[in-house]
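U., I forgot to send this yesterday:
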Amino acid sequence: MIGDVACVLVSGTGQHFHGVCIDTGSGTGFCAVHAAIAAMVTAGQFSIQSIVAVWRNEESGELFVLPPCGRCREFIRQIDPVNLHTQVILGRSEALPLSELLPRWAWPEPLR
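Result:
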């Protein structure tokens, strides 16, 4: 589907950035989280205060909060190290810092 998932993030300066997903049959699309982050980076910003992605079931009208997948969690982390503190919205009354959702986020130590 095109645009069935939306994302909004609040940057470190308090600005809101939005994105939607574009899924294509060839796999060349991108997710809403990446789109919102791209909009933020285009504006010259890199830190994310909070982020949420949602999907609405067209049949029932119910709204669902979607936690970021592993690829998106790592993408958020790599944009700016401070983003380990990003509050990821998981529901109406639940949020966790990215560091708690991204296991083993530290770069590995060399073997000795």
